[in-house]
Write a structure and sequence with these properties.
heterodimer; A: 4 helices; disordered C terminus; B: Aspartate Aminotransferase, domain 2; Aspartate Aminotransferase, domain 1; 7-stranded mixed beta sheet; 10 strands; binds pyridoxal-5'-phosphate; EC 2.8.1.7 (chain B); cysteine desulfurase activity (chain B); molybdenum cofactor biosynthesis (chain B)
Chain lengths: 106, 434
């Protein structure tokens, strides 16, 4: 990989990690940080310039999503009347179903 | 002096509190965020990427997707068709085979009642299983009241349907077989591909409720010979209130619509499709397709971790449903000699949302656990753990730790546990009623 593109990759990586860590929701934040790290790790051996450019483009798009959502999940929650911003990520339910069973998201 | 003791009380109270607080809370507090919000884990989390896809349609485009003359309408129709393709791609279907609905409940109602009623002149028999979701079972009850014959097949002890039993139950007048792909209570996977083969060879339509399976395990409607399939967006980190029904075109499946009116969705589901929700479903499907492998590895790893921790620390824990043939994100465990509800209460107190929809535990042991032949007592001691895309290791460890502590505490108070440890066979005791 050329030195210039390596620097670009590292810079994008750092920015994505920094922006991901701004999610106020614990579960979004940890997921975003982990997902970014794992994606860059998984692609660390890519040398082909065209593949690299495609991945960089994808990364920049994802960065934009993260930046928009960090803001939105923070400020516009009630305004947009979305009820599903905070995550329940590990759900524990009475296994004895009945009503409870049917309604659980898992 | 009273002041002193008050201060003492308060400070000791604080130390008790901080011991009760989850590491999540403490972790969040350290990171400078309102710990209470972080520890109040609400249900129904959508993926931020899904929200991002929906936002423009929520805010900017007010078009009715079905009014073709309106410019905005055209925009949202395009978005809806993109979403339809994203749903189709995830399951290997043609976009024309995807009907948007309000969720898996509607899709199940539509498929079961719709097919049975359309073919009722020639066929009047429907087959399903005893472990289906309530909306499938209740749709079948309605059909029974209309004069249809329904066979509710039992499942084996591991929760899996016996294929020979299914084959033997198909009659010349059977129009439809409905078997869910992944069970929402015990996580077991039914052999849908094999079931599809049997149904196709007998000329019977196959419907599957795949609300818990789509986007989590690879599904191909053509490989598996599925004729109708129900999908729900909020099970795959999409918005609530939207889903889809896959309806095969070749060989064609006909169904009587539940809703009549403007003829949207090929006349099968009249009513304006809510564009932001359809877009959300599409985005959720597309993300699920892209993340399936990653999510699968992660969820399996966390599930193993949880089960390992619990089973190595507590004796007499039983996993409900087949240990292998399952989706790992849904784990159902019975803790013998512990009342499930007491355990749930003890756990909920510290770790879990009081606002979650799944808090309404029923006093009746679940019909699903009963159907897999779980002991009445064990059915009462069962707890379900859901692990998903956003679950963290800390949450798993914390839940395991709390669960272990609470099970031990509850067992210490249980005379049955004491008797069991003394080697008394509880089954041999004759309980008398006064
Ligand atoms: C297997 C299964 N079928 C159907 C449903 C109902 O889905 P919806 O809430 O989209 O109507 C659920 C979950 O709630 C489910 O787990």
């Amino acid at each position: 990989m050329a030195a210039s593109s390596r620097a670009q990759v590292i810079s994008l990586y750092r920015t994505m990690l920094r922006e991901s860590s701004k999610f106020s929701s614990y579960n979004y934040r940890t997921y975003a940080v982990r997902r970014v790290r794992d994606a860059f790790r998984a692609n660390s051996n890519i040398e082909d310039p065209r593949t690299l450019e495609r991945l960089m483009e994808e990364g920049r798009n994802t960065l934009a999503v993260i930046q928009r959502q960090v803001t939105h999940t923070h400020t516009h929650t009630h305004y947009l009347n979305f009820k599903f911003f905070l995550c329940a990520s590990l759900c524990v339910c009475g296994g004895g179903g009945g009503q409870g069973g049917g309604m659980c998201a898992f | 002096r009273w002041k002193q003791s008050l201060v003492k009380m308060l400070s000791s109270g604080r130390s008790v509190c901080s011991r009760l607080l989850s590491p999540l809370t403490r972790l969040s507090l350290r990171s400078g965020y309102d710990g209470r919000a972080a520890s109040t884990m609400q249900k129904g989390r959508a993926d931020p990427r899904v929200l991002d896809a929906m936002l423009p349609y929520q805010v900017n485009y007010y078009g009715n997707p079905h009014s073709r003359t309106h410019a905005y309408g055209w925009e949202s129709e395009k978005a809806m068709e993109t979403a339809r393709k994203q749903v189709a791609d995830l399951i290997g279907a043609d976009p024309r085979e995807i009907i948007f609905t309000s969720g898996a409940t509607e899709s199940n109602n539509m498929a079961i009642k719709g097919v049975a009623r359309f073919y009722k002149g020639k066929k009047s028999h429907v087959i399903t299983t005893q472990t289906e979701h309530k909306c499938v079972l209740d749709s079948c009850r309605v059909l029974e009241a209309e004069g249809f014959n329904i066979t509710y097949l039992p499942v084996q002890k591991n929760g899996v349907l016996d294929l020979e039993l299914l084959e033997a139950s198909i009659r010349p007048d059977t129009s439809l077989v409905s078997v869910m792909t992944v069970n929402n209570e015990i996580g077991i996977k039914q052999p849908i591909k094999e079931i599809g083969q049997i149904c196709r060879s007998k000329g019977v339509f196959l419907h599957t409720d795949a609300a818990q399976a789509v986007g989590k395990i690879p599904i191909s409607v053509s490989d598996w010979k599925i004729d109708l399939m129900s999908i729900s967006a909020h099970k795959i980190y999409g918005p609530k209130g939207v889903g889809a029904l896959y309806v095969r075109r070749r060989p064609r499946v006909r169904l009587e619509p539940l809703q009549n009116g403007g003829g949207q969705e090929r006349g099968l589901r009249s009513g304006t499709v809510p564009t932001p929700l359809a877009v959300g479903l599409g985005a959720a499907c597309s993300i699920a397709q892209q993340e399936m492998e990653y999510d699968h590895q992660r969820v399996s790893m966390l599930a193993d971790r949880l089960v390992q921790k619990l089973m190595s620390e507590i004796p007499e824990v039983i996993m409900n449903g087949d240990p292998e043939q399952r989706y790992h994100g849904c784990i159902n465990l019975s803790f013998a000699y512990v009342e499930g509800e007491s355990l749930l209460m003890a756990l909920k107190d510290v770790a879990l949302s009081s606002g979650s929809a799944c808090t309404s535990a029923s006093l009746e042991p679940s019909y699903v656990l009963r159907a897999i032949g779980a002991d009445e007592d064990l059915a009462h001691s069962s707890i379900r753990f859901g692990i998903g895309r956003f679950t963290t290791e800390e949450e798993v460890d914390y839940t395991a730790e709390k669960c272990i502590g609470q099970v031990r505490r509850l067992r210490e108070m249980s005379p049955l546990w004491e008797m069991f440890q003394e080697g008394i066979d509880l089954k041999s005791i004759k309980w008398t009623q006064h």
